[in-house]
Amino acid sequence: MRKLKQVILQVTVFALFGAFVGVFANYPEYRHHDPQMALIKLNFSHAGETKEECRRLTQEELERLAPNMRRPLDCPRERVPLLVEIRLDDAIIFNESLPPSGLARDGTSTVSRRFTVSPGRHVLQALLRDSRGNTGFDYERTAEIDLRPGQNFVIDFNGEAGGFIFLL
Question: Which of 31, 34, 146, 155 is most buried by a 10 A CB count?
Fold first, then answer.
């Protein structure tokens, strides 16, 4: 008899726990963004140029180095920060200098941002500078986009493929 009560109590507790998990797995409903708005996502990693060019070591500098460390070129690893600017209908919605990652500041610069915008037709312009220059941009892409409510629009970047990639 005692064993039967224990089994019934265990089944009841497990059923209540299952109901609790089931209810809170579906309610309250979570929305990532307003379904009446569109979303533009900027998401990529890219490494800029090295901050300084490689230089050839002189014979005296080579002789001062240990034999196993003698290499003809000295190439610093540090990279320049990326300058990224996103414009929507001639309004700047993102403008940041992205520092390189890593202890020696020699890794990629990474950005991941979301922008909630009104649906409809927009002119989107993406600009990036990854060189040592102080003016202008190295990559630029402009497109007219038509966003629907609830749509996700992604801005990616691949330097080898020519620059910015717009994904619907």
Answer: 155
Query: What's the burial of 109, exposed, middle or buried (CB within 10 Å: 0-12/13-18/19+)?
Result: buried
Q: Compare 75 and 86 and report the one with higher pLDDT.
A: 86
Taking residue 73's Cβ as centre, other Cβ atoms within 10 Å add up to 9
Q: pLDDT for 21-66, tens place per residue?
A: 888 887 777 777 788 999 999 999 999 888 888 888 888 888 888 8
Dig out the tokens for 103 from the structure. 């202890």
Sequence-ordered list of residues with C-beta below 8 angstroms from that of 123, at least 6 positions apart, any chain: 88, 89, 90, 142, 143, 144, 145
Q: How many CA atoms lie within 13 A of 114 on its CB side?
A: 9
Instruction: Give the C-alpha separation, 155 to 85, whole Å.
Output: 12
Cα(4)–Cα(126) distance, rounded to whole angstroms? 69
